[in-house]
Amino acid sequence: MTDLDFGGKKVLVTGGAGFVGSNLTERAARCGARVRVLDDLFTGSLENIDPGVDYDFVEGSVTDEKLVSKLVKEADYVAHLAARNIIVSTKNPRSDYEVNIGGTLNVLMAAREHGIGQIVYTSSASIYGNPRIIPILEDERPHTFSPYSVSKLAGENYCHAFYETYGVPVTSVRYSNVYGPKQDPKNPYCGVIAKFIEAIDADLAPQLHGDGRQTRDFTYVEDAVDATLVALLSPKAEGMVFNIGTGIETAITELVTILTRLLGKNVTPEHIDRRDIDNIRRRVLSIELLRTRLRWQPQIGLEEGLKRTVQWHLGQK
Ligand SMILES: NC(=O)c1ccc[n+]([C@@H]2O[C@H](COP(=O)([O-])OP(=O)(O)OC[C@H]3O[C@@H](n4cnc5c(N)ncnc54)[C@H](O)[C@@H]3O)[C@@H](O)[C@H]2O)c1
Fold it and tell me: N or C: which terminus of the chain carries fewer CB neighbours within 10 A?
């Protein structure tokens, strides 16, 4: 992992009790940041954060303009992760609009008013829809299939506009299928890997949507967090958009094969109907911009990442 030093600076992490946010909170604190988490605990939980980590918690919403203004004023950096996820967003596009777009606008308005060292905004590879070219470059045209991808892209566009118009130092990062410890299979909104592990471990057939040959770029959470914090601390990242992924395309069936082997089980996947919210056939991100501009590259391969994730899930039982 990259050698990072926050030197006692104050970092506000919105959504810091969630899956990625809790991993980021722990890492930033261990790298010398004074971390404050703002979270409404909608999907997050304080149990996600190691009790040995020193941080400050504020329960509240990014839609609360006054609260966000106060917290941003008191921070040196902001990692803005708070968001309604794709399933909630599909069911309730208004909540998605208010939190994902409105909350991002609140962070940016506060940064414009009070000044800030740097902000990183976590967007999503879902903004690409079905891409024309694989691996997907950052300048691929967006194709927003879901309310969630509309709101994540709108957040990015606001970031860019605030950088250009008011000079707010902000970077957008586009995550691709992040997985790892703290992704909760009991939460109906979580990623596919946590669900597969739970099913296979219980000797149940993992359910694959469609033929299972759809591909994704699976990113281990430690890598996603590392790249996000590198972007947060690098002046070279200001005003830019970066893909965060591995550059490796993996079919869902391959994932199930590896997990079945790691768990020592013998289950056959069940094929069910395609889901209507994520009809993307192939997805793999180009990470050349990260490599060349920020000198960053992922450290954890799929096999190792899955092994650590399986160990974590087994330890939770
Ligand atoms: N996990 C992935 O694969 C992935 C992929 C692409 C993008 N992202 C983005 O990364 C970020 C983190 O995602 P995650 O997977 O950790 O999801 P998560 O649901 O575990 O975390 C989101 C956190 O935000 C909090 N939150 C939601 N609404 C809030 C509000 N109004 N005010 C304050 N807090 C609020 C939740 O309680 C939760 O703790 C999100 O912005 C998401 O869009 C994640």
Answer: C
